[in-house]
Amino acid sequence: MIKTFFLIGMLLCGSMTARAAEQQLSERIHQRLGIRILTVSETPISGLYRLETPDGILYSDGAGDYVLQGALLDIRSGVVNMTLRDQQRLRKQRLEREQQPLLQLQASPERYRLQLFTALDCGECLSMGQELAVLQQAGVSVSLQPIVDRRQAWPQFRQQWCSKIPTLLAFDLPEEGCDAILERQTSLAGQLGIRRSPTWVLPNGDRVSGYRSPSQLLQLLKNS
């Protein structure tokens, strides 16, 4: 019994020590590079840590003295891009945590759901009403997410998103009201490192930037 309690204590102590080391690494990278670190986790490579940031994934040694940016490949059996896989998983988890989309074009029946991130100054985005209707008829629901222009005053930004966007793209306003949801959603694009408009996020967490026709999006959905 004493041995059991001793082992449990050792495990708890080790876990707390690991969390403290990860917190220290996060703070050190933030101090040195000014980058906000969302999570720190170990990789399969001893001494190499994965750092999740709003702009993607970085890698660092345990002391925070060296930082790598790029793809980590697992070539033990074929080639697996672990960085891309982790980015997809993290985006998917973030979107699943969101309570309700700002605006949505609901398909019935729904086969797929796309997230469309756009800004008010994206002319091609605001002219996609007919193309979004094609997706809706094909069973694709589209949730609209805002990319915030920090140069614009909040009242003006809110007014345009809650009146101009639904009119142009024929989106349904949520029952809760656009204003309340907009306040929750404005940070999502930044958390996912999305700045280009339009950007589509697929159900598997993959990200596609730039214009895509309905047929191209349907093919991407089928392959995801």
Explained architecture:
Residues 18-83 form the Disulphide bond isomerase DsbC/G N-terminal domain. InterPro entries: DiS-bond_isomerase_DsbC/G_N, DiS-bond_isomerase_DsbC/G_N_sf, Thiol:disulfide_interchange, Thioredoxin-like_fold, Thioredoxin-like_sf. It is a single chain. This protein has a five-stranded mixed sheet, sandwiched between helices. A four-stranded antiparallel sheet has the order 1-2-3-4, sandwiched between helices. A two-stranded antiparallel ribbon has the order 5-6. Mean pLDDT is 81; it is low at 5-16. The protein is α+β, with helices and mostly antiparallel strands. The longest helix is centred in the N-terminal third of the chain and has 32 residues, at 2-33. The protein has helices at residues 2-33, 82-97, 129-137, 154-169, 178-185, 188-191, 214-223, and strands spanning 39-42, 48-53, 56-61, 67-68, 73-74, 80-81, 103-105, 112-118, 140-146, 199-201, 207-209. It has two domains: 14-95, Roll (Nuclear Transport Factor 2, Chain: A); 101-222, 3-Layer(aba) Sandwich (Glutaredoxin), CATH 3.40.30.10. It is built from seven helices and eleven strands.
